Amino acid sequence: MPTKNLVETHNLTKQYGKIHCVNAVNMQVPTGAIYGFLGPNGAGKSTTLKMILGLARPTEGSITLFGTPVIGKNRMRLLTQTGSLIESPSYYGHLTGEENLRIIQTLKNCAEKDIDEVLKIVRLSEARKKLVNHYSLGMKQRLGLAAALLGFPKLLILDEPTNGLDPAGIQEMRELICTLPPRYGITVIVSSHLLSEIDQMADHVGIIRKGELVYQNTLESLHAHSKEQIALRVNHTAIALDLLRQDGIEATVESGYLLLPMAEDAYVANLCRLLIAQNISLYRIEKREKSLEDIFLSLTGKESSL
Amino acid sequence: MITLRMEFQKIRRKKIALTMCALICVQFAWLLWSGSHPDESGRLQGWIEMLHSLPLVSVIMMPTIMSVLASRLADVEHKGNTYKLLNTLRRPGELYHAKVICGLCFILAISAAQFIFVIVLGYARDYAGHPEWNYYAKAFVLNLACCLSLYLLQLLLSMLFFNQMIPLVVGIGGSMLGLILMYIKMYSFLPWGGFLSSAQVRMDWNPETRVIHFYYREYSTLELCAVFMIFVWIVVFYTVGRILFKRKEV
Questions:
Q1: CA B34, CA B49: separation in Å to the nearest integer?
Q2: Measured on CA atoms in the order A66, A69, A70, A72, is the torsion positive or negative?
């Protein structure tokens, strides 16, 4: 039976001195998902991912990979089923792309034919004989992804994979990531500080703020948080507000607009009739939606960068 | 074994062997220059004189050569930020071993080249008799041990510091320190003094007759401790390096 959650962390904590870089994070990454790990710069995304990969030691807490708790002895065995690209690609600049992949392929102990396949996936087949020092940043990033894909692991951990890429490169990388779960059955954890990026790639999302996981669910459910409202602009806002309240309608005033909960068309029509009957001029009726950005900011704090 | 094989793959095109050859050639030039026109007495003491010259050459050259070697091997990882990838593929301890053994292969080659050159040079200069193989074998092992202790120290520094100037300065400083310590005779227990404290040949110069006489010395207890210290340094640097490398978070 496949494991429900491929990755689980339990109270995962990392402390540097007195500072909690990651604080009691309980992450749950379902099998086959693209899990968007979202948070402002310095929120603790990379540290969390590094702890999952065993590159940083947790101060507290535990990690379960593929249903097995990670301990010192089984760490390497479990990591053979993962691929990673943390912060920036790792490469030997004085070697060709193919030679770089051959080193990783040998260390991963996977099939040699995988090299051709991953080069094809990341569209680097033609540049395979070129020294990596002569690659562009986007090519290096794609080589990093190719190295992570070698052996077609069950889990792929990508930390800000679009960093430093131009818009076309970002789009290309995004499309590539989206194809991985359906084509190869790979579960992907992808971190970013850009909400729009995660919105276009992920189906599950975890939002981290100052080391704490403040939200974790499906992206769909995050979208459901976007509350729809009706905004009315009238000539006498205060009188209109009284009228609506007398009628038992919950309304608030914001920036000169009356804000009402979302309602049926017929109800809105009645509302308009009521206001006009009281000699109130109705200038505008708008549908308002709380954007994902608003939700993100309300979860992570407005002072955080996007 | 795979990790070690990959270590050699990684340094392709880095011309480490060429760099080592260039540095070794400086040693060869020095040895060629010293006693280039031996007289009868020089030919009689030629083999033993070579064993006297070798540690002197090594104490000056080897700390720098070892720092260059360790720096070149560690720098390939620093430049490409590869530890964060390698540490997910192999245990850090295994990666450290591979670096140590890879460096040891170079040290073996350097030491062998040094001794082969000395022997060929001796025969070319028509030194009397043959080398005393037991002393030459001991000198080879002690030279190797001294180089290894310095290499382990340099590897430790090169792996810990991203900026390779720090270990290189330590290496060059070590060469200078070895030279200074040689004159003030306080070299015995320091890693850079190992070449001289383990030297088997001493020189006796008579100011009146101006005759140089080389002889094999007997180690005193303190001198034996100094030789033993070389192996202590190997264990210390290896252990500390391994622990620090394993603990290092990337």
A1: 10
A2: negative
What are A225-280's pLDDT values in tens digits? 777 888 899 999 999 888 888 888 888 888 889 888 888 888 888 888 888 988 88
Which runs of E-coded beta strand occur in A79-175?
A: 82-85, 155-159
Asked whether the predicted pLDDT for residue A297 surpasses 80, the reply is no
In the three-class reduction of DSSP (H, G, I as helix; E, B as strand; rest coil), residue B120 is classed as helix
Q: Which ipTM value was assigned to this complex?
A: 0.85
Residue B171's pLDDT is 93
Nearest-CA residue of chain B relative to A93? B80
Q: Measured between CB atoms, which of A50, A99, A108 is closest to B89?
A: A108
CA B198 to chain centre: 13
Task: Please determine, for residue A306, whether its predicted confidence score (pLDDT) is greater than 50.
Answer: no
The C-alpha of A103 sits at a distance from chain B's nearest C-alpha, in angstroms, of 6
- 């909960």: which residue's tokens? A261
Region of residue A28 (phi > 0: left; psi between -120 and 50: alpha; otherwise: beta): beta
Reported pTM: 0.83
Closest CA–CA distance from residue A294 to any residue of chain B (Å): 35
Angle at A39 between CA A36 and CA A43, to 5 degrees: 130
For residue A170, give both structure tokens. 């970002």
DSSP bridge partners of A287: A230
How far apart are the C-alpha atoms of B147 and B50, rounded to whole Å?
Answer: 18
Residues from chain B that touch A108, judged by Cβ atoms under 8 A, are 89
Q: What is the spatial distance between Cα A206 and Cα A25, in angstroms, rounded to a whole number?
A: 10
Does residue A62 contact residue A12 with C-beta atoms inside 8 Å?
A: yes
Q: How many whole angstroms separate alpha carbon B88 and alpha carbon B91?
A: 8
What are the 10-residue block averages of pLDDT along chain B, 250 residues in total? 91 91 90 76 85 90 94 93 93 93 96 94 89 94 96 95 93 87 71 88 84 86 88 96 89
CA-CA distance, B111 to B59, in Å (whole number)? 13
Domain architecture of chain A: domains with CATH: 5-81+153-224 (3.40.50.300), 228-289 (3.30.70)
The whole-angstrom separation of Cα B198 and Cα B184 is 16
Backbone angles phi, psi at B50, to 5 degrees: -60, -40
pLDDT higher at B186 or A158: A158
Q: What angle, rounded to 10 degrees, do the helices at A97-108 and A113-121 form? A: 130
